[in-house]
Amino acid sequence: MFDLKKIIRKNIDRMLPYSSARDEYKGQEGVFLDANENPYNAPFNRYPDPLQTAIKEKLGKIKHIEPDQIFLGNGSDEAIDLLMRAFCEPGNDSVVSISPSYGMYQVAADTNDVNFIKVPLNSDFSLNVRALKNAISETVKIVIICSPNNPTSNCFYSEDILDIAKGFDGLLVVDEAYIDFAPHKSLISELLDYPNLVILQTFSKAWGLAGIRLGVAYASKEIISVLNKIKYPYNVNVLTQNIALKALDKLHEKENWVKNILFQKSIMVEKLKAFDIVDHIYPSDANFLLVKFKFNNELFKYLIDNQIVTRDRSKVSLCEGCIRITIGNESENRILIEAISDFESDIDLNKN
């Protein structure tokens, strides 16, 4: 039986959270003389809601989850960092994750002086469930799985992910940053049955709001209360909150963007298949493609020289010779395809 008290750091459990002025008064109207704010330059002179109540209420209705099961932070990176700070004892505890995957997991672990254990994916990018389970020792407090994974772009079977949560005394964190583009549904619906499950999502991808830096964690009320306890008092600024609230009223717009991106991805796949320099296009459940090219390094440099920015992943384990390509709009995708065509023509000429 999972017991949060057994894995939370003792000093975190004992500490009293900072109580801000806006924690003590929840109203929107009144004469505010409590927070030493400047009375001029409304509305930006006032501190934002420290718990982002309005966003959580709207988001809760969309995701069918209670608002107090939602944490909002400065990107998903804040939630990742706070989870390690709250549940991993520096210099003693460990985090397990898959490899290759999102690089910030290790950065957060290193920053918090937490041992980071990488478990390689199988050669087909599937989860090695047995190896993951074998990597879990008494010091492992968190397991992180990104699904759809970055940079491999594939989802993992829900059964495999949840199998790891069973019998694990720590937290299983599933990063679903790209879930809106995937054919699989989110694991948010599993939170009730798995009290050690944490789901990360973001406004950066499908919502088109990477610039406002808003990440989300969904978990039990007990886990969320721990994150709220140790976060900075006003971690999400008023500008971000206002933009997020407006975006949540345009759910149909987000869904149309996702449909368009997926359509453009299907076109991109067909165009790439026609190139001789393309060795392999990996199946994608995200808004990007991982593509293995002949002359990978030369192509990447050629694209950069033509101000077309992709991501070289050739030095990442299991991704040798690969470039990660984000799906852009129709015009951006066409420019990329034309550049690859020009590059391939040049390579063929050089061979002759």
CATH architecture descriptor name of the largest domain: 3-Layer(aba) Sandwich
Alpha-carbon Rg, integer = 22 Å
What's the number of helices?
A: 13
Query: Segments where pLDDT lies below 50 for 5+ residues?
Result: none
Overall structural class, as computed from helix and strand content, comes to: alpha/beta
When the domains are counted, the total is 2
Please outline the major beta sheet.
Answer: 7 strands, mixed
Q: Order of strands side by side in the largest beta sheet?
A: 1-7-6-5-4-2-3
Helix fraction by DSSP (H/I, runs of at least 4): 25-40%
Assign the CATH topology of the largest domain: Aspartate Aminotransferase, domain 2
Distance between the termini: 68 Å
How is this structure best summarized?
The chain is α/β, with parallel strands linked by helices and 352 residues long.
Notable traits:
352 residues; alpha/beta; Aspartate Aminotransferase, domain 2; Aspartate Aminotransferase, domain 1; 7-stranded mixed sheet; 4-stranded antiparallel sheet; 13 helices; 39% helix
Explain what the structure shows.
By secondary structure, the protein is an alpha/beta fold. The chain has two domains: 246 residues, 3-Layer(aba) Sandwich (Aspartate Aminotransferase, domain 2), CATH 3.40.640; 100 residues, Alpha-Beta Complex (Aspartate Aminotransferase, domain 1). Helices cover 39% and strands 16% of the residues. The chain contains 13 helices and eleven strands. The strands form two sheets. A seven-stranded mixed sheet has the order 1-7-6-5-4-2-3, sandwiched between helices. A hairpin with a 6-residue loop joins β8 and β9. α4 packs parallel to α10 and α5 crosses α6. It is globular, with a radius of gyration of 22 Å. The termini are far apart.
